[in-house]
Amino acid sequence: MASSFAKLVRSAELSGRLQVSKEPVENPPYDIHKLGDAVLRTPARRIGKVDDAVRELARDMLVSMYAARGIGLAAPQIGVHQQLLVIDLELEDPASPPLVLINPEITAVGGSICTYEEGCLSIPGVYLDVVRPSVVEVSFRDAMGRPKRMKADGLMARCIQHELDHLNGVLFVDRVTDGEKLSAGLNEQGFNPADVRSIA
Ligand code: K1U
Ligand code: ZN
Prior knowledge:
Layout lengths: L3 H11 L37 H16 L4 E3 L9 E4 L11 E20 L9 E14 L5 E7 H14 L11 H10 L12
Antiparallel strand pairs: 1-2, 2-3, 3-4, 4-5
The structure holds ligand K1U and zinc ion.
């Protein structure tokens, strides 16, 4: 018979909120691939059925993201070519649930075009300005497979666009317009500027 704790976890997860500790672990389930690795350039496929295996993958991605102290992670970054991403802007708040977005699509952009310094767990140590719309609307399925829509601004809008790019094999450095800062930042951290596929 399931323990009362297991029942509590199960009932919380039925609401679509995956229960994962935010404490960074030393040996996360997945390593994160780095710039220059071809897996980051392979577009992800849509997920058919949202089942326990997909939820297990999302949980493992969250554990790997918290271990790397990131606020987002897309499945291609761990070498899995499925349209799945996780986001948590509240790393210090254990009660705030992370977001799990399956088959996300941006349905509208708005607000203003704004500049913000981005980082990426696949390009550690490199932080550079990127220009993107300040507001997005996104449709997706949650961890229970239910269709959802949300409107986001600020850091959430930024993070959604950054993670969605990962699903299409696009990296934030591809969008950087300042070529000199880009080369300097990449060289300093031991990355090869030739691995950038500029769309800026
Ligand atoms: O996709 C990723 O590589 C995660 C990335 C998300 C992101 C950061 C900044 C702007 C857009 C998208 C990161 O989490 S990099 C780490 C980072 O910037 C950060 C970590 C903790 C708190 C705040 C920022
Ligand atoms: Zn990234």
